[in-house]
Design goal:
Its cofactor is Zn(2+). Its EC number is 1.1.1.1. Pfam families: ADH_N (PF08240), ADH_zinc_N (PF00107). Belongs to the zinc-containing alcohol dehydrogenase family. Class-III subfamily. With about 400 residues, the protein is an alpha/beta fold. The protein has two domains: about 220 residues, Medium-chain alcohol dehydrogenases, catalytic domain (Quinone Oxidoreductase, Chain A, domain 1, Alpha-Beta Complex), CATH 3.90.180; about 140 residues, Rossmann fold (3-Layer(aba) Sandwich), CATH 3.40.50.720. It is about 20% helix and about 25% strand. The protein has nine helices and 19 strands. The strands form four sheets. Strands 5, 6, 7, 10, 11, 18 and 19 form a seven-stranded mixed beta sheet that branches. The chain has a six-stranded parallel beta sheet with strand order 14-13-12-15-16-17, with helices on both faces. Helix 4 links the parallel strand 12 and strand 13. Helix 3 crosses helix 4. The longest helix is centred in the C-terminal third of the chain and has 13 residues. The radius of gyration is 21 Å and the shape is globular. It starts with 5 loop residues before the first strand and ends with a strand.
């Protein structure tokens, strides 16, 4: 890797020599060659950013269930190898391509898989955080500019991108629409969580559902996203937050995020939605499905109160199956919607959310359960597989 003069700042070594701008950088990356096989630490070539692109030095990256499913090749959209996965990270801008005006060398940033170009009809609307040009696209594996990858092996073999980000590399190249600038005083390790899990969950509670004070909430699946929903609901003053998970240990962690009641669906008794209706006088105001399972989605939908109950889908449903209820069931006043990246517009709204986290409105420390060096990425994935970690942060 190219050498830099470095200085200690904010808990990491920050590059102060940007002589690599415009040049190919050789650096270390964790490459998946075959689905399900261990990550291989490789020396890869990272090209300079092209028009409206940014090259970032990654400082910290963490692992999400979406990375796990992509590594296993579970989703057809993600089966493109060799590939550099990863989409939760924080870093420093090393160089920018032609036309990039809002980001410069040295900026502290987080990559965002659901970009915000600022120019399309959706970006100009306050009704959505979808971006027609740089939104999340599981099938995308190369850059938009020229249809090529910015990663390659030393012998010139292309290595594919992942979710607009590819953060399991010491350097990565993204479209500028997928880079959010944050306060340089923000703790970079914690800011890593804002790239996906915490923003997705908290945003679903704040932006998509707009949870109100004293309301009731049910969360199906207490992984990182589900617990982030709980943290968001707690911050909004929800009076009852019911966590549903087959792992009773999740309730212990959930209590830190505001979960007040716990239901294990594997225990004998009435269906989950009936139990929730009993303890909430007819059903919760908001339910969140964070598993990606149709049976769980139906329970989440039926657990809400008739007349106004609202269900938010956060789980990734890989198979193209239909929703598990009759259209007439919507006539009793319940609503349902999917949420991408918690409804946050990444470039324009994430910086403010980062400042809220810095003030302690959302507690990020609670989500980091493990920390390892980048070279231990296979160990980090095993922790996630075994259900032992919420977020394992890797330092590069």
């Amino acid at each position: 890797m190219e050498n830099h003069h470095q200085k200690a700042t904010n808990g990491f070594s920050e590059p102060t020599d940007y002589s690599t701008a415009g040049r190919v950088i050789t650096c270390k990356a964790a490459v998946v060659w075959v689905p399900g096989e261990p990550f291989v630490m490789e020396q890869v070539q990272v090209d300079p950013p092209q028009k409206l692109e940014v090259r970032i030095k990654i400082l910290f990256t963490s692992i999400c269930h979406t990375d796990l499913s992509a590594w296993l090749g579970e989703n057809e959209a993600q089966r493109a190898f060799p590939r550099i996965l990863g989409h939760e990270a924080s870093g420093i801008v090393e160089s920018v391509g032609e036309g990039v005006m809002d980001i410069k060398q040295g900026d502290h940033v987080v990559p965002i898989f659901n970009g915000e170009c600022g120019e399309c009809k959706c970006c100009k609307s306050e009704k959505t955080n979808i971006c027609s040009n740089s939104g999340v696209n599981g099938f995308k594996k190369v850059m938009t500019n020229d249809g090529k990858s910015r990663f390659s092996t030393k012998d010139g073999k292309a290595i594919y991108h992942f979710l607009n980000t590819s953060t399991f590399s010491e350097y990565t190249v993204l479209e500028s629409a997928c880079v959010a600038k944050i306060d340089p005083e923000a703790p970079m390790k914690k800011m890593t969580l804002l790239s996906c899990g915490v923003s997705t969950g908290v945003g679903a509670a704040w932006n998509t559902a707009n949870v109100q004070p004293a309301s009731t909430v049910a969360i199906f699946g207490l992984g990182s996203v589900g617990l982030a929903v709980a943290e968001g609901a707690r911050a909004r003053g929800a009076s009852k937050i019911i966590g549903v998970d087959i792992n009773p240990d999740k309730f212990i962690k959930g209590q830190e995020m505001g979960v007040t009641n716990f239901i294990n669906p594997t225990e004998p008794g009435k269906p989950v939605h009936e139990r929730i209706r009993e303890i909430t006088d007819g059903g919760v105001d908001y339910s969140f499905e964070c598993v990606g399972n149709l049976d769980v989605l139906r329970e989440a939908f039926l657990s809400t109160h008739e007349g106004w109950g609202f269900t938010v889908i956060l789980g990734i449903h890989a198979a193209p199956t239909t929703l598990p209820f009759h259209p007439m069931e919507l006539f009793n006043g319940r609503g349902i919607i999917g949420s991408v990246f918690g409804g946050f517009k990444g470039k324009s709204q994430l910086p403010h959310f980062a400042k809220q986290c810095m003030r302690g409105v959302v507690g990020l420390d609670k989500f980091i359960t493990h920390e390892l060096p980048f070279e231990k990425i296979n160990d980090a994935f095993q922790l996630l597989i075994e259900g032992k970690s919420l977020r394992c942060v890797l330092q590069l």
